[in-house]
Amino acid sequence: MESGTREKARNVLKRILIAASYDVEEVGDPLDLSAIGCEDAMVVLCSDDLETIEKFDSMTYRLRTGDDDWVCRKLLFTLDPGVRTEDCILWGVDEFVRYAGRAALAEVLGQSLVLDLGRPAPAIRREPVETIPATVEEEPEDGPELPHLPVQVAEKRACGIAGLHGTAKCRFIPYWNYRYVSTGEREVKDRLISFDAEGVGAVNAINGLKMEIDPDTIERGPVPFGSEIVPARLVREDVEAQLVRDVVDRLTQRVRFRYEKGDAIFYEEKTLKPDRNNIKVDLETVYVPVWQVRGGSKIVEVNGFTGEVLSMPMDEGVELL
Question: With a threshold of 0.70, does the pTM exceed it?
Answer without folding.
Answer: no
